[in-house]
Design brief:
CATH class of the largest domain: Alpha Beta
Order of helices and strands: EEEHEEEHHEHEEEEEHHHEEH
Structural class: alpha/beta
CATH architecture of the largest domain: 2-Layer Sandwich
Number of helices: 8
Helix content: 25-40%
CATH topology of the largest domain: Nucleotidyltransferase, domain 5
Number of domains: 2
Shape: globular
Distance between the termini: 21 Å
Strand content: 25-35%
CATH superfamily of the largest domain: ATPase, nucleotide binding domain
Length: 253
């Protein structure tokens, strides 16, 4: 019997979901809905429940827009902001999310085996190959980062919340709000950030993923251009499948 793996790519702005088999081939159309705010753990589970109900998954994969450790939430990032990414974080939401056992609660709520991982890491699983060092930079509401050596994820820092320059985080420097203010300036900062990360990690390949990656061209990265790959949204969904089946190959999503 073919698996029905329901993959959720949870972002600060929207939640994308798709159903794929163990080979990475789609079994249903990709769906998208707005991320609900304020987003408590219970609210997020409710937001996922309808797609679960109509998809009858055998397995569930979730890319989460925050920091996880041993399937427990360490930092829920933008989900702690009650009115969305542009609002200040709430101490109450921070407390609700801290140490939330996301995988355990998913399995309890939906009665199927679940895997959870940071959303940038899930995108990295979907696009990393066998190169010695590959980095993945996701560009959307904020900035995500993941690192892979020979196709295996390597634990690394949360780039988004780190300081890009005095008083400005990477999320603020290359996130959607910066792009809306001044897209040419945003593009220049993205190129500088990507080049810096590629140099710091000695990257053989640089994958750019997330909704705003499509606004870029490899030719803008100078001598790095032949190592830059612009990825589509499908890589995150394939990454969810690879949490269970590492050798799954991409199908048209």
């Amino acid at each position: 019997m073919s698996e029905r793996i329901l993959v959720f790519d949870v972002g600060a702005t929207s939640i994308k979901s798709g159903v794929l088999n163990e080979s990475g081939n789609p079994l249903a159309n990709v769906a998208r809905r707005s991320t609900p705010y304020p987003c408590t753990p219970a609210t997020l589970l409710q937001a996922l429940a309808l797609r679960v109900a109509i998809s009858s998954p055998t397995k569930l994969a979730v890319g989460f827009p925050g920091v996880l450790s041993n399937d427990l939430v360490v930092d829920a990032g933008n989900l702690t902001r009650p009115e969305g990414p542009s609002s200040p974080p709430s101490t109450e939401l921070i407390a609700q999310w801290r140490d939330f056992a996301l995988r355990e609660r998913l399995e309890g709520a939906f009665s199927c085996t679940a895997r959870v991982v940071n959303d940038a890491a899930m995108a990295a699983l979907g696009c990393a190959g066998d190169e010695a060092c590959e980095i993945v930079v996701t560009l959307g509401t904020g900035c995500g980062f993941a690192l892979a050596h020979h196709g295996r994820l390597v634990e690394t820092i949360d780039v988004g919340s780190a300081l890009f320059e005095a008083g400005i985080s990477f999320d603020e420097a290359v996130g959607e709000a910066a792009r809306r203010r001044d897209e040419p300036a945003w593009r220049d900062v993205v190129v500088a950030v990507v080049r810096e990360l590629a140099s710091s990690y000695g990257a053989d390949v640089v994958h750019l993923a997330g909704g705003n990656a499509q606004r870029l061209s490899p030719t803008w990265f100078g001598d790095l251009s032949d190592r830059v790959v612009i990825e589509g949204n499908a890589v995150a969904l394939l990454g969810g499948v690879r949490l269970f089946y590492p050798r799954a190959s991409a199908g048209p999503v």
